[in-house]
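To the structural biology subgroup,

Please find below the input and predicted structure for AAA+ ATPase domain-containing protein, which we are adding to the shared reference set this quarter. The sequence is reproduced verbatim from the submission form. If anyone notices a discrepancy with their own records, reply to this email rather than editing the shared folder directly, so we keep one authoritative version.
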Amino acid sequence: HEIAQRDPPSWLVEELLPETDLAMIFGPPSSGKSLAALDLAFAVSHGFTWFNRKTKAGPVVWIAAEAAGAMRNRTRAYAQARGVKLENANFEIIEQTLSLMSQDDVSALTDVLVADPPVLVIVDTLAAASGGANENSGEDMNVVLTNCRLLHKATGALILLIHHSGKDAARGARGWSGLHAAVRAEVTVTYNADGDSPIRVLTVTKQNEGIAGTKLPFKLNVVPLEWDNDVSSCVIEHLDEAVLDSKDSGQLGGNQRIVFKIAYGLAGGGGAAVLQDVYDEALIGMVKPAEGKRDLRKQHIKQALESLVERGYLSISDDQIKIGSTYDEDVPLSEV
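Predicted structure (tokenized):
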């Protein structure tokens, strides 16, 4: 009875990250884990949805213990790609070297954080912020995790640790095996480093407050910075979840189906449709969000078009759309 009467969990990101003490995102080098976390940081600091899920808006602090020099270009790339102003983001980056093994450093950090308590603190990375702690030592890592919990207790913030996967990624995060048990939520980043697919996947591999197993596909887009075209960085692009199983199932995802049927109808028998006309019709065909909700329909149309081109259902050239060779004319549109 006591369990049944508990209040439902509060979410920082709906059904993904609870308002709790510790969570972790980990993956192999160059998987995009820090870029995904940065995308999350901006979503929370602005109150944007993240992978179509509500966020709790509030201040975000990023502890740049690793690759601090890259943060300038990464944040500028995000602002440029998303059309937001960095000065409007409730987002602070701490570049000073600190150690979560040091009580003095943790006390000083706590004093900074409580002045304007964040809802999210991101540690990039756990190893770099641990001051030489032995990752394989439960004794050392318990000190680090205890100090992270003290930060949570002082601020109420979720402490999100960015970490590396081990040599065998299937066995989880690198180092001490107790790390998985210590966090309340865990997200794994995977991608095929040897393949040609641009798709990377965030998978919820642990969720104490909900259901694990959620998969969120994304890809990395290169952004040449406007102030210097010789300099670029990357941002993540959220993809339709249907791309994960659509190649195996042969079925299109919901947004893909809407866009394909419109393109097919406008293209006629072997003709071509105007790209803008497809956009306009698809915008009407998708459900308009409720008042006050962020309208992501254009983003979903763009994602659907890219997926349809990748799968060979459509081809796009000079703003003209033609039906691709993947579509079997003998299959009714209702079964695509």
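Summary notes: The two ends are 47 Å apart (CA to CA). The chain has two domains: 11-239, 245-335.

Regards,
Lab coordination
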